[in-house]
Amino acid sequence: MVITELYIRNFGKLSEQHFYLRDGVQVISGENEFGKTTLHAFIRAMLFGMERGRGRAAAKDDFSRYEPWDNPGNYAGIMRFTCGGRSFRLERDFSRHTRHTSLVCENDGEELSVEHGDLQVLLGGMTAELFDNTVSIGQMKAEPGQELSDALANYAANYYETGGGEFDLSGVLRSLSEKKRAALRELRREAEVYGAEQEKLTQEIKYLEEDIRQLRMEYREKEKELKDLENAESREETERSTAPHGPAGIASRTKAALMAVGGFAMICMGAAGLLQSRGMPGGLPEIMLALITGAAGLAGLILFAAGIIKLRARTEAQSASAERADVQNADSDTQRRLSWELERLQSEWKEKELRCGNIREQYEEQGKSEKQLRLEEQCRALEIAEERMQKAARVTGASMDRRVSRRASEIFSAVTDGRYHSVEISRQKGITVWDGVRRIPVERLSRGTIEQIYFSVRMAAAETLAEEPVPIILDDVFAFYDDKRLESVLKWLSRQEKQVIIFTCHKREERMLNAAQGK
Amino acid sequence: MKFIHIADVHLGAQPDAGPLYSRGRSRELWETFERVIRVCEDEQSDLLLIAGDLFHRQPLVRELREVDYLFSELTHTKVVLIAGNHDYVGTNSNYRTFRWSENVFPLFGEKPQYVDFPELKTAVYGLSYHSREISRPLYDGFTAAGAEPFEILLAHGGDEKHIPFDRRAMECAGFEYVALGHIHKPMILKEDQIIYSGALEPVDKNDTGPHGYVKGEITASGVRTQWIPCASREYIHLGIQISPEDTTGSIKREIEKQIQEYSNENIYKIILRGKRDHDVSLDTERMKGGQNIIEILDETSPAYDFEKLYTENADTILGRYIEQFRGCREGSTEYQALCEGVEALLNSRQ
């Protein structure tokens, strides 16, 4: 492809200007502010169109930068070029409202369609990005504070690994990992919300467990109380079951007293006293006793102890059991109260245990939220993306290395007039040049030489990546070249069967080129 | 013999019902249940059949008292219920000890049993869950014993871990009617014979569609049933088709329009599908507005023409990256990785 004419209607600071170009190397020189950069941008805009950016970026994009101030309605131009032996006329109107593109083959007047990719075919697959990274060459730029050699090393590594420098690999990896970090942050936030809910449930479970513990303790206490009561009772029960000894004991004691004193009254008093001392309510039994003892006295000594005592003992036993029943009554009230209490405590704690179980169930059921799952998936996706991006970079880098390196070395050798034999580019070892004796790291090279490596890599890539030779545009590239190197590079360019357009603010390039071409 | 068949009332559940209704949702489940009891009373139904999961978890005594009080007010209707997998009869279950009103007939046994209503010429069969899961097909081979002319099976389950059953066998088991519970979506397995009434109210955000109960009548000439919607709200999944022209604002408007159509009384989950412009990032939080939306799922993918990108960039990292995802399914994690990577690459274009 050879550009033959540029006609700028209105584009940036240029208006109504014609530029006629020819095949081979040519120089467009002019002083600063002449509009070289504008012309360069115009060529790019004609070849690839110019999309208006959206949003904030729009303020700084090419469309806004080159939109004419005075005559924005006539933001347009024409480019003539030849390709495959045929001439074409490409006309573009960039204006916001009358945007239009036409492509006509001037040999037969055939109207081609840019929308349908006819121009792309003529450009042989060259894209705007590829153009920017291969044939359209400006001065190498380093970030502020960055060594040019580092800039070149980064550039070259990226250039290789992305297959032409169209993309910024470290930027890509950075943005992927930033996105992953953001997703992880959100995931943590989400987990906190989830955790807070779980925590609430855990707390509730804890409170319930504490309640249950209390209830159980209370239960045990009451249970013990009840047991004590029951024990007390059963002790009495045992006493009662050994009761026959009681009356019999009394009887023997009475018998002894009787033997000793031998008097009825004494018997009566003794018996009464005995009864009273046992805490018996007086009254009837006493009267009965008196009567009985009286009768016994009357009946004489024959009616001796055994019978009376038997009777008395029976009475005694009877009254003792009545007493016991009373105590027992009071006891069984407490017992009943206690067992109710126990029942209540048990049902209360059982209910709480049930609630506790329900909350535990809820705790276990509470799975991750859908948002969490989605974020987790995004993290996984971003991890896969990172991993495969690196793999893609390795593959691309290896293939670029195979295809570009040798050619870049050839060009570099030609440009340096054989001073260096080859250039080697690797992510690990950085960029080194080989002068036939030593391998010199790029840091030790002059700015001019570094620019020449840059130039060589791009030229080599342009050859390998672009199917159709596209004009090479060199915008102020040679400022740091010494005369000898400049001569070599111009010689090399002249040998390439390509259109080369050199923009410069110096006269040097034109002079030398004229000399080289024998003009 | 007139009956009403409900299931999966899930009293005590606290379903997420969106920002507007979650707070009162638990109460709504009780209200709807009461409403059905009232229907039983108004229509003087003979039987209220509850096919399991009346409660969401182990019922507390006070909850049982509430329910029993409602039952006790029924002047005519008799209630038969079984325990499902949620309110299964555990060792500490209050179901074991609770004393029900006279008109309530729980079938809480682990083994099949039945309750006989000679005055209705009806016998109701059933069994209850005694554990959270039962994977044995307990209903297979379970046939009507012929105790009464009309025989009903009250059953709960139907999936792998909850008494799977053979529908064909059930059809031939001799029951006039099988009142099923467990599956929350109302479903007729056999017309007028084997029916999932569905949950009375939807209790999970995936219980979409209408919910209600079955009203039926068994006469000598056969069974007639009717499904009656009665839930106070519905979960609605709204799929919204996105095109590359859409923005957060335009999608928000579309969601508002659609929700207005379906009424904001319902509970929404929005799923965004289709292709969005790759430069547009959709802010789903902003789309919610003040509407009763539980969540908005963004399933859109950026509108990339991967084939075209690949052929144009075969030798560059972009092409090699796309190449690694050959044959990956749209919507998969891999596909998402593809989109993320391509987006990052295209954004890095210098």
Automatic annotation (TrEMBL), chain A:
GO terms for biological process: double-strand break repair. GO terms for molecular function: ATP hydrolysis activity. Keywords: Coiled coil, Membrane, Transmembrane, Transmembrane helix. The chain crosses the membrane at residues 256-275, 287-309. Residues 223-249 are annotated as: Disordered. The keyword Mitochondrion does not apply. Residues 223-242 have a biased composition (Basic and acidic residues). Pfam families: AAA_23. Residues 5-227 form the Rad50/SbcC-type AAA domain. The keyword Nucleotide-binding does not apply. Residues 342-395 form a coiled coil. This is AAA family ATPase. It comes from Mediterraneibacter catenae. The lineage of its organism: Bacteria, Bacillati, Bacillota, Clostridia, Lachnospirales.
TrEMBL record, chain B:
Residues 1-186 form the Calcineurin-like phosphoesterase domain. Keywords: Exonuclease, Hydrolase, Nuclease. It holds the Pfam family Metallophos. GO terms for molecular function: exonuclease activity. It comes from the Bacteria. SUPFAM superfamilies: Metallo-dependent phosphatases. This is DNA repair exonuclease. It comes from Mediterraneibacter catenae.
